Each structure stands twice: as C-alpha cells, then as structure tokens.
Amino acid sequence: MKYLNRILAGLLSAVIVFSMGAKLVSNTVLAYNAGIEAFVNSLYSDCLGRSADPTGFNDWCNKLATGQITGKQAAYGFFFSPEFQAKANAWSDTELINAYYKVFLNRGSDPSGASYWAQQIAGTTNDISILFTGFADSVEFANKCASYGITVGSHVDVPTTTRGTSSGSTATSAGGASGLAAQTNGARANSVQELDAYWTSQGFEIFYIDLGYGNTQKCYARFYDMTEHNSQFNAWRNQNGLPSLAVISDPNDIRYQYARTRAVEVAYCFNHARPEALTRFANGDWTAVGKICPEGEARENIANGLTNTSIDVFRNSSLHNIAMLLPDTTSMVTASCQVAFVQPDGVSVYFDSNRNGFYSPSTGTAEGSVQLFYY
After folding, report:
1. Which domain holds residue 39?
2. What integer pLDDT is reported at residue 358 of this predicted model?
C-alpha cells in the first residue's frame, strides 16, 4: 500500500503541473534535488548528446523524486527510446560501447573492457539489449546511482532490439511516451516498441486477453504485493477454527500464472466467465464455457481493485466469505493488478471504455483481483 500511495502521489503531482497550463510545462524547469537533476542531465547529455528539454526533464526528475521509477528504469527509458536507437544505428560498435561507459559508469572505456564488450556484440545486431543488461546490472552503475541519492533498483528485463533497422524517427523527449501525456487518450508513442518500453520501465508486464475467434486485447499490467493480504486471509481462517492454506507463490506454477491472467481479465470484464466465453455467448456460440481454472478443482472470488487493506471486501460478503472458509481446500493464490489497455492503433492506451470492467481515476488504470482456492 505504501508503494501504491507513492504512485498515486506522483500521478497527482503530474496532474497539478499539467493543469497549470502548457506554458509552464513547456518552458519552465522545476527545482529538484541536485543529485536527481545531475543524474537526469547526464542521461540526456551522455545518452542522447543534447540538453534536456524542460518537459522531459521535469517528467524524469518527478518520477525519480517520488520513487515511481529507479535508476535502471530511467536508463531504460532513454536507451530504448527511438531517439537513442536512431543515433545508435549510425554508430560503430566502438562508439556504441563508449556511450554505455559514459552513461552507466561516468567514465570512458578501458582497453580490456572495451575489448570484452566488442566480443560480446560481435556478429549480432542485438547489441543494445546485450550492453544494457551488462552495464545496468554492474556494481559501478549502482555506485553512480548511490552517489546521486538514487535507488538503482532491481534487474530490468529488456526486449530483443535490433540495431540498424530504425527509420530514424526521433521523439521530442527521451521515451516520448513517458509522463502524464502517455496516460491520456490523446497521446501516441512513435512506435509499438516505444510504448512497450515506457510501460515496462514503469513495472508493468505485457498481457494479451483472449477475446475469442482469434481476437486479443493487448494491455499492460502491474501487480500488487499480496503478502499482507494472504496473511490476513489465513488469520481469518484460523479465527474460524480452520487451518491455514498453502500460498502458491512460485512464478513457474501454472496456478500462479493463471491467477495473474484472471486478475487482468477481471479488470477488462468484471465477470466470472472468461472474456472469450462471453464473446462466444454473445454470438450464439455455446461451445465454450470459459473454465474458471485450467486444471484441478477451484473456487474463485473476484473483486475490483483489491489491495492489502481490503480483505474486508471478501470477508464482509456472505458468498465470498463462504469460499474463504471452505474446509476442504488446501491451497490458494491471490493476484491483484492495475491495467492499462492498448488502443487498436497499437501506440496509445486508453482507460475510459464501455467494458464491464472498472476504471480508477486516481490511478489512471483499471483494476482487478482474483482469489483461487484449490482442493
């Protein structure tokens, strides 16, 4: 909940700045911690080779200052922006490697290091992804972030990016889909890759909802930590004379994966039936029921925007509470997430819709949650 509050605070501050008028956003550089300012300026100068524009500068500084992103996520936004990739397409391997040394290590390359990285990217066009992972996860970059008072953050998964095929288009600021503009219906990124890069840098994962008949809905989902919720859930069972349920937390467990998929589907369509099944029903096709669980027997509870402090949503509902207190269940998995849905154009997102899901103005996303109880 603490992390969610930081996200909401950051979004609220962005709304306040935006509402004060385009002149302020485009022409005024706001004041931030000196370390954060120096870090962001270094990304612009060392990565893009230019000075920061006020809009982009304010956006990146605000996200770092409010804890919405880490040092690695900020670097991700720059290195996987169309502006950087257009520059990288014109560089030699040596020039590309030197850029990584400048940005991540605050220094030029040493002969042995440069030789090592040249060997790593020799014979491949996937050099941006290879170099980013190696440098972002280095101890030197962690030390650089610490010197600026910035949290370096955990490992960031990166897409496979081919160098040498860009059309050369550039964004008006690094990661042109970043900031409040990316969270309004009117803004569009320059490419599908740019939109993906922005949302994944914010901690969202890419999901595809099965709508039936070969149709899918692409979306971005960020999941809450449900540890506290699960603890409260088992405490409630214990108060009612029932044993605790084993909590399924292995990301490789199909039941864990399924709960996350269901939570995203619930944000899209608040219904116990799968979206794919509802589409078939609407078209008079009753051959697909849309099973709640792909294997084994399970009961399902769903809710809108469940967080760690909202277990009462289920506990105070008679039918939901019955599912929580079933005596013959042995394990459970809970998933709760924020979701943004991708427009048909592939390069913009929307939040208001005529779906049967829920939209939260405070977070700018839809929200969905699911509990699965296994026998």
Report:
1. 2-201
2. 57
Check whether residue 177 and residue 53 sit in a common domain.
yes
Contact 126, 159 (CB under 8 A): no
> Mind listing the pLDDT tens digit for each residue in 172-210?
222 333 333 334 344 567 778 888 888 887 788 999 998
Give Cβ neighbours of residue 90 (< 8 Å, ≥ 6 apart): none
Low-confidence ranges of the chain (pLDDT < 70): 1-32, 124-126, 159-188, 288-297, 305-310, 350-364
- 135 and 259 part of one domain: no
CB 341 within 8 Å of CB 264: no
User: Distances in Å between the alpha carbon of 198 and those of 1, 69, 130, 168, 216?
Assistant: 23, 11, 19, 19, 21
Tell me which residue of 310, 299, 306 sits closest to 372, measured CA to CA: 299
- Strands (E) located in the chain: 205-212, 215-223, 246-247, 298-303, 331-342, 349-350, 359-360, 365-374
C-alpha 281/C-alpha 72 separation (Å) is 45
pLDDT tens-digit readout, 9-21:
333 222 222 222 2
pTM, 2 dp: 0.52
The single-letter code of the amino acid at 239 is: Q
Answer for the pair 40, 73: CB distance below 8 angstroms, yes or no. Answer: no
Residues 137, 224, single domain; the answer is: no
Distance CA 326, CA 234 (A): 12
What letter represents residue 198's amino acid?
Y
Question: How far is CA 288 from each of CA 39, 83, 218, 284, rounded to the nearest angstrom?
Answer: 53, 46, 22, 11
* The one-letter amino acid at 291: K
Per the CB < 8 A criterion, the answer to whether 93 and 118 are in contact is yes
Asked if 180 and 212 sit in the same domain, the reply is: no
Q: Are residues 196 and 238 in the same domain?
A: no
Closest by Cα among 329, 336, 372 to 237? 329
